[in-house]
TrEMBL record, chains A, B, C, D, E, F:
GO terms for molecular function: peroxiredoxin activity. Residues 15-92 form the Carboxymuconolactone decarboxylase-like domain. The lineage of its organism: Bacteria, Pseudomonadati, Gemmatimonadota, Gemmatimonadia, Gemmatimonadales. This is Alkylhydroperoxidase. Keywords: Oxidoreductase, Peroxidase.
Length: 105, 105, 105, 105, 105, 105
């Protein structure tokens, strides 16, 4: 789908997609910290697709289970009970990632 | 104002205020990382008072200027141009914090 | 300002303003309950002007201080810490209303 | 899923879940009124899972069909046409609840 | 479903649904421009059902593919990466509309 | 303030600011239509600074008073009564623009 959108050659959309990737590259903050920032932002804005993306990226960056739960707990406090359904799905995604990691080990 | 609200003895509000403090205590993640999470969540939800609070806490925890700007950049990418007025005020607050730190040195 | 807007004779805006008034009229639910619904909706959506409006209307409808705090506590749980600055201003407005009521007594 | 999350023993998340339950207990406001407040807050924040939860709780507390529609109408006025898809699903859930009540009678 | 809701005879809901239709009628602005306004508003508020509705209406009003993408690009810039999953589904809906138009030609 | 932020040389922020400008350049849609899209998006997301910016830009692009009110009416229908305080300030800003235009004539 991204290929289809980028193939449209809309300058603003294409540059935005590129910039979206650049924002999470390591710098003064590590890639791992930036993915946690992306995760908490996605949680309080309640976007399941974005949460799933950052959960997977966090797993790839070696984030621990406790770090995920502490990040989710901040999103819960900031965003309130309205984020609970998304927090549940985030935990579900995280458990999937852990299962895959164990299957590969 | 917080004292006035807590003095009301509403169990839910008082426990929430207490829990809000606990969420940012160090654990698997450092206090500093948690404040950055609080900052980016406040930025994408566009709450100036919350942004100011976390900017001040970040300064107290020794966050660097580059780390602040990278955190703000993720909030900007996730939240879009609608966060720009809040990003401007965040930078203004951060500059105040740096000036105060220099005046104290 | 409302007069100026209504004088513009934009059919959609004028009918919406009229409908906005109708929604809070008593029916199966009392006017008082409807104002509490308007208050909690305004709190979780974090609109200070709307909160002030419904706080004043609640005071006019004889809502008690405990009822206000319980309504605010539900808004706080649902909406999270991001509503705290608005909750503070709501309490401030409510205290103003109580002082005016006492001054008139 | 809740058991799995609570079993994680994250203090902030566990206390929040507990507090979320306490917020809807009867006090100065009845349980029924508090569920209506939860419903309208969920509607304007557009969370289908939360709406379903409060619709079911409202049915359990004996809320009438007219009271539900008046609550939804306030959510619609406050939140605008963007809540219409959620209002439709809320009515669908409510109709399910009524059918179950009739099947049990 | 709309018939079922309208049959309930809740004055506020019924008048709102009527007004919602009136808002997109041609006036100083064309129907086409108004549908683009409805589309961008739905995109930044991230409501898939509303986006689908306005995408279909835009196709009916003869909006071009480039006009759709430029509208989506403004929604993306204003609303940030959090709208990307909805932008993807919007493009998917638009492609469906184009396919149907070609099948009918 | 923008100069201060851009001087920071954060690649993501600087490119985003540049892209934000590009999004409103004329293309398949006119600059005027794009400014109306920016206005309605800012209204439903309830950002006064963004609304003011697009109101001024609309005035510069020769948008008529009726076109502004029709755009605001769509924002009101989509976003609900919660946008009313922002709609009032938008009308206020528009009236300022018209007065300035008349003073210059």
């Amino acid at each position: 789908m991204n290929t289809r959108i980028l193939g449209e050659n809309n300058l603003v959309i294409n540059r935005f997609f590129n910039l979206d990737g650049r924002a999470y590259e390591g710098g003064a903050l590590s890639v791992k910290t930036k993915e946690l920032l992306g995760l908490v932002a996605s949680l309080v804005l309640r976007c399941d697709d974005c949460i799933t993306y950052h959960i997977v990226r966090c797993a790839e960056e070696g984030v621990s289970r406790d770090e995920i739960f502490e990040t989710l707990s901040i999103g819960l406090i900031v965003g309130g009970s309205i984020v609970i359904p998304h927090l549940r799905r985030a935990v579900d995604r995280w458990d999937d990632c852990e299962r895959m990691r164990q299957a590969q080990a």
